[in-house]
Design goal:
This protein is α+β, with helices and mostly antiparallel strands and 318 residues long. It is built from 9 helices and 21 strands. The chain has helices at 3-8, 10-21, 40-46, 49-61, 115-118, 189-209, 259-272, 287-295, 306-317, and strands at residues 26-27, 30-32, 36-38, 65-75, 84-89, 98-106, 112-114, 124-125, 132-133, 140-149, 155-156, 160-165, 171-172, 178-187, 213-215, 218-221, 227-230, 232-238, 241-251, 276-282, 299-302. A 5-stranded mixed β-sheet has the order 15-18-19-20-21, with helices on both faces. Helix 3 packs across helix 4 (49-61) and helix 7 (259-272) runs parallel beside helix 8. The longest helix is centred in the middle third of the chain and has 21 residues, at 189-209. The structure holds zinc ion (3 copies). One zinc ion binds at residues 90, 92-93, 95, 149, 151-152, 154. Residues 90, 92-93, 95, 149, 151-152, 154 line the site of one zinc ion (ZN).
Amino acid sequence: MRRAEIYKNHKVQIFLSKFISQNLGTIYPIFDLNHRYRYPDVEEIVGNPKSAKEFLKNLNNAGILKKELYDKVIQCPKCGSVNVSMHYCCPKCGSFNVKKASLIEHIKCGYIDSEESFRGSDKLVCPKCLRELMKVNVDYMKAGVWCICNKCGKSFDTPSPSHFCRDCHRIFTFDEALYEDAYIYSLSKDVMQKVCRGLTNIITMFLQNLGFEVESPGLLDGKSGLSHMFDIVARRCVGATRSVIVIDLATASEDAVSQDFVTAMFGKVYDSAPNKAFLIAFPKLEESGKKLTSRYSISLIEAKDRDDVVNTLKALIT
Ligand SMILES: [Zn+2]
Ligand SMILES: [Zn+2]
Ligand SMILES: [Zn+2]
């Protein structure tokens, strides 16, 4: 399906507005044994786990959502269950009846043995030189792990993995396992930018209705002699008072807009000294940036939904 048609789909519209209004940022699945990974936020809109996955896949194919590998689900080749455990087995006889020990090296005397053999009553004591081990990486080092097979007695450091189905009790290896990808999803950058552009137009109209003269993008001269560009520069004269508002819109490349954006904006605001400065962040600003905005007298608006942004602006301007 083409992107334009997808946007017309009612469920897609609900999904996108929910995405922005609830600051979903990233959609994580939850795991349950019956449905494997499922996406409850999306199921609310499209109905069931299967169609939720299908829905996300379609939006990803259309470039509206980007996906990132989150986990791999191991499935029993016999019964299909995902109630599967991992066994670390003896490479010689294949038994999973294996004892795992951490190794410790006493730095002073160079003695290496299992942690167990260093354990005194409540402290670590070297069985060779009988000195007490106090600090890790100073007195002693962790020297890896060591396994001993309780069945055949072989010791080894790398066990061979196999899987056990808790439902049908089948034991199977990686070769036979069914292995399925699970993803997390987030809005692709260009979709967020599109939402941003749409919002810039709405804000422009809103400010014009309030009697502002709006430039987008607009320039404002600074004390330094430099001109600074903002996404929106709005000027209005009421009687003899002239007021200037600047607005920047920022979209996050990860979950939240970086605080660097605030710092960069402050440089422009400080020099050009508008009456009010607003930063609109999609979908939100990282925590450290929020403290900066209040210190720098930049009013922060985190994008809830389009109406909300405009209403918030309205309350702050008038
Ligand atoms: Zn099974
Ligand atoms: Zn063995
Ligand atoms: Zn020692």
